[in-house]
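Dear Dr. V.,

Thank you for agreeing to look over these. As mentioned in my earlier message, I'm a first-year student in the group and I'm still getting used to reading structure tokens, so any feedback on how I've presented them would be very welcome. I ran two proteins. I've put each sequence directly above its structure. The first is here:
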Amino acid sequence: MLTGKQKRYLRSLAHHLNPIFQVGKGGVNDNMLQQIKDALKARELIKVSVLQNCEQDKHEVAEELAKGTGAELVQVIGKQIVLYKESEENKQIELL
């Protein structure tokens, strides 16, 4: 689990990121989870956008993505979800 201080730090890093995935009408599926896992391995910190036609609540989507990818949910802000997962091969972010 991340501490409050670590989450604040990650939020500040994520502020400048653009969402690289979008969850739409189909919701979360296995293919999407695999792509997000790969992106997390490469980048550690990503943003996912929840489109207006998504039938699930954004918080449900966030929980599903975090569980399905083994990532930490950093924040849900507006229609954006920020996820973090420490990468073993490609570590870039140093948490205190």
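The second protein is here, in the same arrangement:
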Amino acid sequence: MAKTEKNQLDNKAFTEDCHKVLMAMSDALYAIGGKWKLMIIIAMARGNKRFTEIQRQVTGISARVLSSELKELEMNGFIIKKVENGYPVTIEYELLPYSHTLEEVVGAMTKWGMQHREKIKAEMASGKSEK
């Protein structure tokens, strides 16, 4: 009987821990998930501040999608939109200090992406991917 209670407590702790991990991942993916957000942040970290500069660097993104993604990044506290009145009006986007919390994530994903690309290339070269 005592063993059954211990198993139930262990399962409950495991389930609660799993739920915490899944919720944290859900929050992270909400803030930076999708095809474009991290690529936009990386392009901005490399000095691209104007809309057209960012769009030029992030190959394949449409103006409508870029505009939407920039709004979401601003809403989540990663960037700020700066508008300078004058002629012509100048709009620039700037990374906020909070965006630097993503450096470790971006580094890990970049490293993994390079390894994955090399793995796929090696498998294709050896004919392994035909299975």
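From my reading of the second output: The chain has two domains: 1-32, 33-130. The chain has five helices and two strands. Does that match how you would interpret it?

Kind regards,
E.
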